[in-house]
Structure formats: C-alpha cells, structure tokens
Write a structure and sequence with these properties.
The complex is a heterodimer of chains A (about 400) and B (about 250).
Chain A lengths: L1 E9 L5 E10 L4 E5 L6 H8 L7 E6 L2 E2 L5 H6 L1 E4 L11 H11 L4 H14 L16 H13 L5 E5 L7 H18 L2 E6 L2 H7 L2 E6 L3 E6 L1 H6 L4 H7 L3 H5 L15 E3 L12 E4 L5 E5 L18 E4 L4 H10 L4 E5 L5 E6 H10 L26 H8 L1 E2 H5 L1
Parallel strand pairs in A: 3-8, 3-9, 6-7, 7-8, 11-12, 14-15
Antiparallel strand pairs in A: 1-2, 1-4, 4-5, 9-10, 12-13, 14-17, 15-16
Chain B lengths: L1 H9 L10 H33 L3 H13 L2 H12 L7 H28 L3 H9 L4 H31 L12 H9 L3 H29 L18 E3 L5 E3 L4
Antiparallel strand pairs in B: 1-2
Helix pairs in contact in B: 1-9, 2-5, 2-7, 3-5, 4-5, 5-7, 6-7, 7-9, 8-9
The chains are: A alpha/beta (about 400), B mainly alpha (about 250).
Bound molecules: adenosine-5'-triphosphate and magnesium ion.
The site of magnesium ion has 2 residues of chain A, from helix 1.
Chain lengths: ~400, ~250
C-alpha cells in the first residue's frame, strides 16, 4: 500500500504543483490519477519514487517512510513507466527489458529468458527482441517500456500516461492487455492519465485532481460517474456518463428470444424472415444475413458483421450496445464460452435498466448509506469485465 | 607540376634514411597520436562531467573558444622561447609542439563529449534514474554509449586539425612531414613541398577513415542510420569541422 499523507510540492519558482494530498493506493489494486493538464499528476507520481522530493508531508510504502529509504534501492523495487517509454536507444529491445534484473545482479541468461517471456506477455513478437527502439512503432515502444518496468517483478508500478502515444485502437488493445496482465500479477499500481475514459476503464479507484494540485474526489469509477461531488467533477467525467455508468451495472435476467439460426453454406433464399443469424458448428454467432438479398448459399462475403455481441453475465452497456448495433435490431447474447443463448431488443434492455437502481456504493462520507442490492457493482473486477464483454460477432467466433 | 610530384614520390632516395618519407611519416603520426591521447585524456572526462552535471558549461565553452582563437604558430614560438632554457635535447622543441597540438585538440573533443551527453534523450536518462541507477551508472550505461557518435565526431575533427597543424613542428626544427614543406621551401623544391602537402592530406584522410571504422565498430547500431528508419535520432547536435556545436534544425 502506498500512502500519501498531507503531501505538498512547491517548486522553487513558487508553483504549487501538489497541495496537501492525502491518498491511499491499496495493495494489488490500480489507483488512477486523472485530471486536466498541469494539475500535478506527474509530480505526485514522481514523488513516490523520489524522483521529486516533497516539500512537506510523507509518502510511505507498506508502512515505511520513503524518505528514510535509500533512493536507488527504493527505485529498484518500483517499476516506473515514463511517458513515451524512454527506452535506451543504444540497446536492443531485449537488453532494454533486461536492464533492471541485470542491475540487481541476475545473470545474463536468466534475465534474458525472463525478458523474452515478458515480451510475449505484453504481446510483442519474440522477433522484436533483437531490434533497436528506433525500429519500433510508438505503441510497440510503449509495450517494451511496460515490459521493462515489469522485468524485476516489482510489487509496485508507477505508470505515467503509458498508452498516450498511440491511436485509439491500439490504445484499447494495450489497455485490455494491461488489465489481463494485472489480473494475473495483482500489482499495486498508480496510473496517471488525462483521459477520463481510460481512468474509468482501468481504475479500481480513481483520484481526480484539479489544477493547483488539489484532490477533488477519490472513488470507484461507478461511484464517480453517478455521484460527482461538484461541478468540476461532473464536467470532467463528461456528457456520456449516464451511458458509461452502464459499464458497471451487471446485466439482470433479460427476456431472451430464441433466434432462428443457419450454418455457413446453407441455402437461405426461401426463408421468409428479414434477418437470420449465422452460427458456426459450436453455435457461436458469426453474423447476420438478409435472405431476400442472398441468392443461394450463405457465404462469408454476404455476412453482416456490424453487430456487437454481449455476454449474458456482462454489463448492461454491452447488452444495450448489442441491441443498438445489430442490423436486425435484435442484440445477440452469448454465454461465457461465446455460444448463442438468445437475442434481446433495445426496449427490453431499457426496461431492465429502468428496473435496476442507480449504482449506489458505500459513500465514504456517509458510511452505511449504500443500498445492499447494488453493492455488487463495487467489485474491483467490474471495470475489467466491462472492457472485455463487448466484441464484434466475428471476434466472438474466432 | 604533377609529373614533378610523381617523380619525387617515386624516387627511391626519398623513401629511405632519416630524411625519408617513412621516418618523417612515423614522426608525424607519433606527434599527432601523443597530442590526441593527452587531449582526449583531459577533454573527454571534463566534457562528460560538464554534460552529466550541467555545471561548468559556460566556463568550458568560453575557455574552449579562447583556445581556438590562439594562433598556433605564435603560441609555438612563445613556448619555445619560454621553455627552451628549461629543457634539453629534442624535448626543447618537441614539448612546445605537443602543447600547441594539445591546446588545438581539446576544444573539439570536449565539445563533442559534452554535447553528446547533453543531447541524450532526457526520457532515457530519466528512465535510467527511475529504475534505480546511480549517477555513475547512468553515465556509464546510458550517457556515454549514447554520446559516442558525437564523441567520435569531436575526435575526428580534432584529428584532422592536429594532423594538418603538426606540420608547423618543422618550423622550430623538429621532424614530421612538415620537414618536406620547410626544407623544400628553402631550396625552392616545389615538387618536394607539394609531395609533403599531399602526404599530410593523405595521412589525415587515412586516419579519419581509420577512426570511422573504429566508430562503426563501437557505436551501437541503434544510434546510427543503419538501423534507424524513423526520424527520431537520439542526438540533435552536430559538430561542424571547425569544432563548433550547432543545433540541428529538427525538433
Ligand atoms: N520543475 C518544475 N519547476 C516549476 N514548475 C513545475 C516544474 N515541473 C512542473 N511544474 C509545474 O507544476 C504543475 C504540475 O505539473 P505536472 O507535470 O505534475 O502536471 P501534470 O498533471 O502531469 O500535467 P500533464 O497532464 O500536462 O502532464 C504545472 O503547473 C507545471 O507547470
Ligand atoms: Mg504529466
């Protein structure tokens, strides 16, 4: 656990970058620091490994005051991913990742073996190992940066906008990989971003800072979306927050309709329905076809793959999105293995939404105010399941 | 003229004895190598320290600028007059010559070293510190390897200047390829003078080629154009032949 206790940083020129910050980053969880540019996120992060010294206040790591620890030792126990990766240009990818284990005295063979494993873990082809940073794309460099910070298996990770330099599609991939990794590794992570969507998706706990370095609100993502404490937070979490909050609401039992399905290669010309769902031999949905536009057999070219599929156990947002994105207006619902269980219409999802309570969590100011019915939404894995629940029809069959 | 040079260079008499090409070539290389070694031993550590700490830069830049403004020949005469009574034998001429060459070589080598360290991607330095490297480790494992391309360009420009300027050693009576220039001039032997100048130029080119080969072997391929296919070169400072550092326009 990392504890900030009344931490203030005033730069020599008088700028107060962080003002009396008190915050706990619990062990094994992801704490996201988010806020507008210049609000002191990087400064807060870098005070943890003492790259910046606090002006006053203390930061402790598992109960030990960091100012009493040897700097180099403290830092070797903390994985630090800096913005834009900061790879060593003169070293190969493999040598970059092996740096900290080598510093700690691990022999070359063992550290390289571990680095190769890590490269695979962050989704990089082993063929990249012998390349130099300048030969990688921005997203690949950031993965190497994450692998390098993980190499010595530190219990604590500090990550400063690690996914900022990539396009939204790659960013989404990196975030998903990151959550999957964290599911396996369970590290204590402080993650800095200025992107509220990223914060909501990744954080077990989100701390919003405002300019001047003041902590505005700390809460679990669902609570932050439903209970912003003031106009600044409400503005910052954005306009779609009602829709986004559905990411944290588990889908209740929906009235599912049985869907007529066909297999690839089947002749659908004589069917009289408007849209029909195509599934593979394991009953995994592949896509929709319109019988009156298909002459003869269903082939992969005539398949409409636009609709998303939602897991029955996933969040409401995925179910609603499945219904909204389906060309037949019938949202495809699958079980955890990806097999079809039925379809649902948007108005049925909306009815289900109206029937559920707004997510009500333990209010830190008024303990006991939370309604027991919705307390399940505070599960730390809610963000993770939300991100992986929605995939396109073709993804689910892959 | 050109046939004269060819005749001179192909005359076996000019290739033997204490006044032959091999002897003077060897002396020339010897002076240059010694001067460059001493200069590098002083300038590289100082340059690295300035680049690493960011301190003393102002002083170093100005001292180096002043050193560049000193006319080599003038300094040579002053040193000979001053040191002659204190030294004996060959060293009475050799030491002043070496000092002149060292003074000449220090500024470009030092500029290369500090510009190289200064130009290291701040993010790489930050990452090195953040992962728990000590200051010395950051210097050895990150800053020096990344600074090597500029350290080499400093060394190479110093080498070119020193090889050329070492000809003035002959003015005060020591050896080296300058002998052909000075001696040739005394007797109006233009082929000999031209051959001497040609040999100096060839030596400079040869040494530069040698250093280029060493550089190729020592500098990480990650820093050179051979593997870098994106525009983000790690250092953005170049040293021009006169040894001044100029900021590359990119960035
Ligand atoms: N070395 C410094 N000296 C003086 N002021 C500084 C220094 N570093 C940062 N600041 C100021 O402190 C404030 C917080 O900076 P910080 O880098 O922590 O912001 P940030 O939240 O990370 O912003 P961004 O999202 O743009 O990265 C800013 O106003 C910045 O100008
Ligand atoms: Mg920042």
């Amino acid at each position: 656990m990392i504890v900030f206790d009344g931490v203030t940083k005033t730069y020599p020129d008088g700028t107060v970058a962080v003002d009396d910050l008190s915050l706990e980053a619990p062990s094994g969880k992801i704490t996201v620091l988010v806020g507008p540019s210049g609000c002191g996120k990087t400064t807060s992060l870098r005070m943890v490994n003492r790259m910046i010294k606090p002006t006053s206040g203390t930061i402790s790591l598992d109960g030990r005051d960091t100012s009493r620890m040897k700097e180099a030792e403290l830092r070797r126990g903390i994985g630090y991913v800096i913005q834009h990766a900061g790879l060593f240009p003169h070293r190969t990818v493999l040598d970059n990742v092996s740096t900290v284990p080598r510093l700690l005295g691990v022999n070359r063979r063992d550290s390289e073996k571990r680095s190769m494993e890590l490269l695979e873990r962050v989704g990089l082809d082993p063929a990249f190992a012998k390349r130099y940073p300048a030969q990688l794309s921005g997203g690949q460099q950031q993965r190497v940066g994450v692998a390098r910070a993980l190499a010595a298996d530190p219990p604590v990770m500090l990550m400063d906008e690690p996914f900022s330099a990539v396009d939204p599609v790659v960013r989404e991939q990196l975030q998903d990989e990151f959550l999957r990794l964290q599911g396996e590794l369970g590290k204590t992570i402080i993650f800095v971003t200025h992107d509220i969507d990223e914060a909501i998706k990744l954080g077990d706990q989100v701390a919003v800072l405002r300019v001047g370095g003041k902590l505005a609100q700390v809460a679990e993502p669902a609570y932050l979306l439903s209970h912003p404490v003031d106009d600044f937070i409400a503005d910052f979490v954005g306009r779609d927050r009602g829709y986004r909050a559905l990411s944290f609401q588990p889908t209740p039992r929906l009235p599912l309709a049985q869907e007529r399905t066909v297999a690839m290669g089947e002749d659908v010309a004589r069917l009289d329905t408007d849209w029909v769902l195509v599934v593979d031999e394991r009953n995994h949905p592949l896509g929709w076809v319109e019988p009156r536009r298909v002459h003869g057999e269903v082939t992969s070219e005539v398949l409409h793959r636009g609709g998303t599929v939602a897991r029955a156990s996933g969040p409401l947002r995925a179910a609603l999105d499945a219904a909204l994105s389906s060309p037949s207006r019938r949202g495809v619902i699958v079980d955890d293995a990806g097999a079809l269980v039925g379809t649902v219409r948007a108005h049925e999802v909306l009815t289900a939404i109206e029937d559920t309570d707004r997510p009500e969590l333990e209010d830190p100011d008024h303990p006991g105010a939370a309604s027991p019915a919705a307390s399940g939404t505070s599960a730390p894995t809610s963000a993770a399941s939300a991100s992986s629940a929605a995939g396109t029809v073709s993804d689910a069959s892959a | 003229m050109i046939p004269g040079i060819i005749d001179w260079l192909t005359d076996p008499a000019n290739w033997s004895g204490p006044d032959g090409v091999p002897a003077h070539l060897f002396e020339h290389i010897w002076y240059c190598a010694l001067a460059l070694l001493v200069a590098a031993a002083v300038a590289i550590p100082v340059g690295l320290a300035i680049g690493h700490t960011g301190r003393g830069r102002f002083l170093a830049v100005n001292l180096a600028g002043a050193a560049r403004a000193i006319p080599s020949l003038g300094l040579l005469f002053v040193l000979v007059l001053w040191l002659f009574p204190k030294l004996t034998g060959d060293s009475a001429f050799l030491v002043p010559t070496l000092i002149v060459l060292v003074v000449l070589a220090i500024p470009p080598i030092m500029a290369g070293a500090y510009a190289g360290v200064e130009g290291v991607d701040p993010a790489a330095r930050d990452a090195a510190l953040g992962m728990g490297m000590t200051g010395g480790q950051v210097l050895r494992k990150v800053e020096v390897p990344c600074a090597l391309p500029l350290i080499f360009s400093g060394l190479r420009s110093a080498t070119l200047q020193v090889v050329g300027t070492a000809t003035i050693a002959a003015v005060v009576g020591t050896g080296g390829l300058g002998r052909f220039l000075i001696d040739g001039q005394k007797v109006q032997d233009f082929p000999q003078m031209a051959s001497g100048a040609l040999l100096v130029a060839l030596l400079a080119l040869g040494l530069d080629l040698l250093l280029a080969l060493v550089q190729r072997g020592v500098v990480s391929p990650g820093l050179t154009g051979r593997t870098v296919r994106r525009g983000n070169t790690p250092v953005d400072v170049e040293i021009d032949p006169a040894g001044r550092t100029v900021d590359a326009p990119a960035r």
